[in-house]
Design a protein that fits this description.
Chain lengths: 204, 134
């Protein structure tokens, strides 16, 4: 059967094939051969014979399966064991081993991506999602992120406890920032504020 | 100019098989900007009320129409998906009896969803109105 243009109805169609990549979270991209059909009358193009979806699904599934292995290896390198994850998340034993073997669903993949991004969520789950533990872990992790930002953009740092009253502690921090062009007012990276003014790279 | 088509007819057609085609640019932007990787993902998204608060923008003639005696119009809408602001343009080809999604991308004239500019402007307008206008 001849393919026709779904827009103008012409049967004058030119077909080309190109390699395409779709990025996959925490893994290598999915690569597939894209069929592109272009109408020689109206110039519109698309997958008029509807063959690409199957190729894309196949390539994505293979890449997602690999991403599960990559994510679990990464967690294992951080000393997070599958048995601990299963216990903390109340999953049946060997559930995660099954995921690693390729038996996974979209929801298991989503859960694994969250754990890979925020491994400390397992401690929260292990505490039965207790609100105070959840908040405290969140603050701890935020402090780590802030510490990383400060350290990576600072060449010297001092911290003094200026006053320590009964119900109020005043801490003064002095940071000498590195000359870092990526760390500027227009950057999307976190910024530091001093005396209500933004402090940028190279400024003490 | 009023919309040439009823958006709900497109939404309904997306749930049917073989009624809607997604053109290359729309498919690529849907993949890159909305992570809707396949044509089926795009159609399922639309059919399952994925276009939140759609707002009619304009209607323009299909520029590539090879038959000027039979004009085909393209409707454009903005929409949200969570905080993301999108843009969709589509037409219906009477000749092939198919809906065509020409464009599906992020809205370049985006207003962040949580920024209620319209509400804030309305408040300012009320404040500056003289009492007898209120």
């Amino acid at each position: 059967m001849n393919t026709s243009c779904p827009v103008c109805g012409s049967v004058s169609i030119k077909t080309t094939k190109t390699k395409h990549m779709i990025p996959i979270v925490y893994s290598n991209p999915a690569i597939y051969d894209e069929v592109l059909e272009t109408c020689e009358v109206c110039g519109e193009s698309g997958d008029f014979s509807e063959v690409n979806d199957e190729q894309i699904d196949k390539a994505i599934l293979a890449a997602k399966k690999q991403s599960v292995i990559d994510m679990l290896d990464d967690l294992s390198d951080k000393s997070i064991k599958m048995s601990y994850m299963e216990r903390a998340l109340e999953l049946p034993t060997r559930t995660i081993a099954r995921w690693k073997g390729g038996d996974l669903s979209s929801s298991s993949l989503a859960l694994l991506r969250i754990i890979r991004t925020y491994p400390w969520i397992l401690e929260v789950a292990d505490a039965q999602f207790d609100e105070s533990i959840a908040s405290s872990r969140l603050v701890q992790e935020a402090a780590h992120v802030l510490e990383y930002v400060v350290i990576s953009h600072t060449r010297q740092a001092y911290m003094d406890i200026v006053s320590n009253n009964k119900d109020e502690i005043e801490i003064r921090a002095t940071l000498k920032l590195k000359d870092d062009s990526a760390f500027d007012l227009n950057s999307m990276k976190p910024r530091l504020v001093r005396n209500n003014e933004l402090v940028t790279g190279g400024t003490e | 100019m009023d919309a040439a088509y009823d958006l709900h007819e497109l939404i309904k057609a997306c749930a049917e098989s073989n009624q809607v085609t997604v053109l290359t640019n729309a498919e690529r932007c849907a993949r890159d900007e909305f992570r809707l990787n396949t044509k089926k993902a795009v159609l399922d998204f639309i059919a399952n009320e994925g276009l939140e608060t759609p707002l009619y923008l304009n209607t323009k003639p299909w520029e590539k129409n090879p038959d000027p005696t039979c004009p085909i119009m393209v409707d454009a809408y903005s929409f949200y998906s969570g905080p993301k602001h999108g843009y969709i343009a589509f037409l219906f080809s009477a000749k092939t009896q198919k809906w065509i999604i020409k464009s599906f991308k992020s809205n370049r004239d985006s207003v962040p969803r949580n920024e209620n500019w319209f509400g804030k402007l309305s408040e300012i307008k009320t404040l500056i109105q003289i009492p007898e206008e209120k």
